[in-house]
């Protein structure tokens, strides 16, 4: 249980790690000048164990609450509130072996841009379930989803977002809306 406030860059930054079992758990991150949690290129190619980002509270960051680029991750039970650019950004999971991203049991509210932006995913699987996206500019935004990608949305509450609940642009993969 760490508290990280008013950093000049990212609250927590992990880049190009090749470890198994990384967990970012139970932290409170507030008012980072960039992102609350930033992960880039963090993937162990010999394992299918994702990075776990769980039970964190991330608020008032100037960019994103959580920014994931080219990393296999499970994001569960986090609260992501009032971040300037957006809540959670998932970008560029480019068909790594067994690549997948799971978002579950999240509370993503009052972010000025989007709740979640999914961009540039190819040959990957993404699941968003049992989460609340409320009072963001846009709830969930899909942009540039490539071939052989499968995305599942199930049991989410997407309400009172100012522009759109779910916005889909440049889709070549498949999205399944499941009860």
Shape descriptor reads globular
Mean pLDDT: 88
Please, how many helices? Answer: 0
Give the helices and strands as they follow along the chain.
Answer: EEEEEEEEEEEEEEEEEEEEE
| Count of DSSP strands | 21
* Alpha-beta content class: mainly beta
- Unreliable runs: none
The assembly state of the depicted protein chains is: single chain
Distance N to C terminus: 35 Å
Strand-residue proportion: over 45%
Spatial strand arrangement across the major sheet: 1-4-7-10-13-16-19
What does this structure look like?
- With 179 residues, this protein is mainly β.
- 0% of the residues lie in helices and 54% in strands.
- The protein has no helices and 21 strands.
- It has strands at residues 3-5, 12-15, 23-25, 28-30, 37-40, 51-54, 57-59, 64-69, 73-76, 79-81, 86-91, 100-104, 107-109, 114-121, 125-129, 132-134, 138-145, 150-154, 157-159, 164-171, 174-178.
- The strands form three sheets. A seven-stranded parallel beta sheet has the order 1-4-7-10-13-16-19, with no helix packed on it. It has a seven-stranded parallel beta sheet with strand order 2-5-8-11-14-17-20, with no helix packed on it. It has a seven-stranded parallel beta sheet with strand order 3-6-9-12-15-18-21, with no helix packed on it.
- The chain is globular and about 40 Å long.
- The N and C termini lie far apart (35 Å).
């Amino acid at each position: 249980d760490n508290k990280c406030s008013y950093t000049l860059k990212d609250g927590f930054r992990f880049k190009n790690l090749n470890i198994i079992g990384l967990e970012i758990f139970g932290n409170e991150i507030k008012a980072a000048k960039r992102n609350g949690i930033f992960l880039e290129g963090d993937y162990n190619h010999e394992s299918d164990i994702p990075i776990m980002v769980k039970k964190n509270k991330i608020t008032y960051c100037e960019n994103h609450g959580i920014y994931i680029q080219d990393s296999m991750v499970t994001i569960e039970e986090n609260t992501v509130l009032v971040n300037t650019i957006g809540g959670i950004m998932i970008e560029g999971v480019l068909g790594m072996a067994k690549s997948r991203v799971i978002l579950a049991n999240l509370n993503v509210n009052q972010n000025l841009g989007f709740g979640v932006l999914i961009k540039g995913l190819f040959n990957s699987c993404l699941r968003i379930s049992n989460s609340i996206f409320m009072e963001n500019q846009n709830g969930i935004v899909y942009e540039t989803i490539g071939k052989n990608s499968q995305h599942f949305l199930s049991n989410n509450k997407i309400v009172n977002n100012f522009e759109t609940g779910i916005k889909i642009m440049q889709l070549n993969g498949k999205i399944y809306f499941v009860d």
